[in-house]
Amino acid sequence: MSTTKSEPLKVGVIGLGWAGQQHLAAYQQIDGVEVVGLAGKETDLLAELGAKHGVQGRFDSWEEMLGLDLDAVSVAVPTFLHAPIAIAALDKGIHVLSEKPIARNGDEARAMVDAARRAGRVLDVAFNHRRRGDIGALKQIITAGELGRPYYAKASWLRRAGIPGLNSWFTSRELAGGGPLADIGVHVLDFALYLLGEPKVLAVSAVTYAELGPRGRGGSGRTAADATVSPFEVEDFASAFLRLEGGATLLIEAGWAGYRSPKDLMDFTVYGTDGGAELRIEGASFTPVGTLSVFTESEGRNADRVVAAEPGRAHQQVVEDFVEVIRSGPAAWARHDGSLALMRAEIIDAAYLSATQNREIQL
């Protein structure tokens, strides 16, 4: 198993869609990393990407690709395949970087974490939005104590017409595990808890709605790479209220479709005992840097300001961090077993259960 920067790291990428292509391109920017395998069902795209990136090992079967001599693999496929592929790779002693969400539910996520611990290998999940430069700048402000003790926060990712692959695997409860709460809401949940310092979530109360998708409205026009056809079985909007250890609360909203501004919105607002902050990213993931405002006072007067931030490096940073952990050796591997992503999955499970049973769920 390659663990030092002097040894080449042999990796494979499973999945040829947008996410898989981000992983593939990122690996090729890192010295000492060799992409030796690429797997996907789209024959023409497999040939095109293989030729473009000089990947000799091309497979239409992920099982066959895992037969290569691999140090690590990226899993960028529909959610229902995350657990079986990751567990199979980990059982072979291969480090795994999975796209979000970690799995369809907490049970699958727990099985993945167990496999990582059993194998003594890394299991990371691609939470790329916490690597945004504007979120990083806000994290520094909160950590420095400038806002005092945060006691209320709200965060969202909202679209006007952004159901990905309407009536594809994305809208199948069995294949996707959920709608926007599981798809883009997990990003919101991740960066919100990250900004707040990873407080323990004590209880969740949530509601979900499916008002536009079942009527064929709100589709993004995007075609899912997977050819699966499914009726609309998930929500198109969700809202979850989280009670946090220490008395703070967090409101999460995730919407694929709704009659709102045409531009996607990703945002985070926090109120603290000594100040507050608001990050608004109009255009969401398509906007490199959002507007970050900080609200404080000095000598009894408002001392508000807008903070400049640099663009983040998204999947490039995710992949670089993954490679760095692998190269750091077994002591670092044990700290990257997928536990954080498992906690995110358990919170989302609780939110769906709350919406179904119309009551608050204790964690």
TrEMBL record:
Gene3D superfamilies reported for this sequence: Dihydrodipicolinate Reductase, domain 2, NAD(P)-binding Rossmann-like Domain
Protein name: Predicted dehydrogenase
Species: Nakamurella panacisegetis
Pfam family, one: GFO_IDH_MocA_C3
Keyword Oxidoreductase: yes
GO molecular function, one term: nucleotide binding
Gfo/Idh/MocA-like oxidoreductase N-terminal domain sequence ranges: 9-127
Domain called GFO/IDH/MocA-like oxidoreductase: residue spans: 137-277
